[in-house]
Amino acid sequence: MAIKIKSSEEIEKMRVAGKLAAEVLEMIEPHVLPGVTTGELNSIMHKHMTEVQGTTPATLNYHGFPASSCISINQVVCHGIPDDKKKLKKGDIVNIDVTVIKDGYHGDTSRMFEVGEVKPFAKRLSDVARECLWLGIEQVKPYATLYDVASAIQKHAEKNNYSVVKEYCGHGIGADFHEEPQVLHYATDELKNIVLNPGMVFTIEPMINQGKASVKLLGDNWTVITKDRKLSAQWEHTLVVTKDGYEIFTLRNGERPYLPNNH
Ligand code: MF3
Ligand code: CO
Ligand code: CO
User: How far is the CA of 147 from the centre of ligand 1 (A)?
Assistant: First the structure.
């Protein structure tokens, strides 16, 4: 198996899929309020994808996953299952992760939302996780390596006394949801061998923990939580390597690079 280089026709389809995935997150934003259930949010997104966009929700039945989005609150790291009995409450931080398929190609993106007013320590974690995503993105250009991406993310997380989740990572994406390579968010020597080339399409989606990096899988076999029950935050984009840098497919309207001060 090897990393697939996408043709310009494939890239155009992924641009469309990515924009539609971003649009789901824009659409859901005003609904993310105290008292709404994660099941209701999932239903609204499912309906929007299937009836308004004509997209297929990629997570639904993916390896048995039972919903059209992942919704991960507070100590949930990723793959939270939407639930008609789970209400958001003021002060929660929540990740909503959506992947759509359009014309055979995937667009995958996630972001954090603050439910009402949140505590400064929770906001800071979400903000630093977002900076980690953008610092990783900034490294993307031909002949850089995935080591550069991972190091930038890990350094910023650790400088802020946070930790990087190791068990889950970003991924190549295209006609398949998860393709090679694995985009780790912490540095390993093997990553130095993964050289970026124009036409490679992948996600960057760091999961940053307030406490220790260790995670635990719940009995539903999907929900991943922090072992120490402290908060976790994640932001995700899908992007392509271009001849002189990158193009993000899942950018939301008005979204700008989100980088630390003095960077
Ligand atoms: N969207 C997630 C990712 O970024 C994957 C979710 S797979 C599911 O890769 F099965 F949990 F939905
Ligand atoms: Co995702
Ligand atoms: Co992903």
Answer: 23
For residues 115-131, average pLDDT: 98
140 CA → ligand 2 middle, Å: 19
Which atom number of ligand 1 is nearest to the Cα of residue 59? 12
115-149: b or e for each residue (b if 16 or more CB lie within 10 Å)? beebeeebebbbbbbbbbbbbbbbbbebebebbbb
Query: pLDDT band for position 238 (50/70/90)?
Result: very high
pTM for this predicted structure? 0.98
CB 107 within 8 A of CB 100: yes
Of residues 135, 121, 161, the one with CA closest to residue 259:
135
Q: Which atom of ligand 1 is the closest one to the Cα of 168?
A: 9
Q: Taking CB atoms and a 6 Å cutoff, what residues make up the pocket around ligand 1?
A: 59, 62-63, 65, 70, 79, 97, 99, 108, 203, 205, 236
CA distance 145 to 254: 29
pLDDT of residue 73: 99
For ligand 1, atom 8: residue with the closest CA: 59
pLDDT at 218 over 80: yes
Tell me the pLDDT band of 1, cut-offs 50, 70 and 90. confident
